[in-house]
What we know:
Elements: H1 15-22, E1 28-33, E2 41-46, H2 53-58, E3 62-65, E4 72-81, H3 82-87, H4 98-115, E5 125-129, E6 135-147, H5 150-167, H6 169-174
Antiparallel strand pairs: 1-2, 1-3, 4-6, 5-6
Amino acid sequence: MMTNNKMEDKFYKDKKTMFDAVGYDKPYYFSRDLVDDKAYKNFFWSDDMEDLNDILSVDNNIFEIIVENKARYSYFDFDGSYQWFKSHKYNTSNMHDDDFIIHEFKILLEEFKEKYGFDEDVGNIVILQGTKASKLSFHFIDKSIVLKNCYECNLYHHKFIEFLKEKDHFLYDLIDKGVYDRD
């Protein structure tokens, strides 16, 4: 069981309830899936990432909530059901090839950074992969780019999404286009 007494029994049914109860000054906020492949979540916070070890040992579907006015690394979510991609006539053999998707993403991110004058290397990327039999899911965190707040994050990522639309329809269809403009 968790050692941090503040986290025991401190799961909230929605973000608003959590923020109303604890405020916006905690270092880390999270949500977690309660049921696989459903939108049922609960929300919690922590003072220290180490406190999450117990919960992560049994549940790897934990998502950080990034508060709008705080700095954050650049991040990209890619996901989609295999059924959706088959119905849109994509070759789904590449969807099972993690290396293909990672390689394509890195090449395009490098191209994007060069085009828009970012000197940062693409080598500092953390890749969280949550692909299941029914769904492809990647979360790329680019630690070479730190954005000031939600507004800057939104501008940067929507520019990348426009770039992706021109360059790679497969990855464009995979990228989550709505997670960059809110907490």
